[in-house]
TrEMBL record:
Protein name, as recorded: NodB homology domain-containing protein
Residue span, NodB homology domain: 1-161
GO CC terms: plasma membrane; side of membrane
One GO BP annotation of this record: cell wall organization
Cellular localisation: Cell membrane
Organism superkingdom: Eukaryota
Keyword hit for Nuclease: no
Chief location category: membrane
Length: 188
């Protein structure tokens, strides 16, 4: 599984540099999940300049380098929106743009039953791979949709993997030692 990181994770309004948020990032990384960029402010990147897109990506890279010592190789643009400029900046930063094959619809207000139907439909189509979009900030997604999806997908013979494993690519551009927090670690 992969966790996409922005400065406020996971959409709680909390700063990634808050000690408990750092603990979340460390926990996810130390348990074999892939960390990837979701930009700093979660803005529509297609409305920004080169420098702004670059800064949105760089700030997340810096945070992940500081907290766990990794530079992500993957970025999912907010709202799945990107254009040629975003492609160029992403390539310049060494990050592959990834989007999803299946949207559970939880961020659009889908009910648990509607989200589960998305997974049932996927299982019926049985594609070779699938990258699913879910939001862990939605309680019903965590408690009901994900357990249902895991059961359905396992019963259909799917194996779970990080995005990097699924696409046979490196998870990180660099892996180094984590840094020690100091006064420069802020979201402002």
């Amino acid at each position: 599984m992969s966790l996409l990181v922005s400065s406020e994770i996971p959409s709680t309004g909390r700063c990634i540099y808050d000690s408990d948020m750092q603990d979340v990032v460390k926990y996810v990384y130390n348990h074999g999940h892939q960390l990837a960029s979701h930009t700093w402010h979660h803005w529509d990147l297609t409305t920004l300049s080169w420098d702004q897109v670059h800064d949105e990506m760089w700030r997340v890279e810096q945070a992940l380098q500081r907290i766990v010592g990794v530079t992500p190789a993957v970025m999912r643009p907010p709202y799945g929106k990107y254009n040629n400029l975003v492609r160029q900046v992403s390539a310049n930063r060494g990050q592959t743009i990834i989007t999803w094959d299946l949207d559970s619809g939880d961020s659009s207000g889908y009910s648990v039953q509607q989200s589960e139907a998305q997974y049932s439909s996927l299982v019926n189509r049985h594609p070779n791979t699938c990258i699913a979009l879910n939001h862990e900030t939605k309680e019903s997604t965590v408690r009901e949709v994900i357990p249902y999806a895991i059961e359905q997908l396992r019963n259909a013979g799917y194996q779970f993997a990080t995005v990097a494993e699924c696409l046979n690519m490196p998870a990180y551009q660099r892996v180094e030692d984590a840094q020690t927090p100091d006064g420069s670690w802020t979201c402002s």
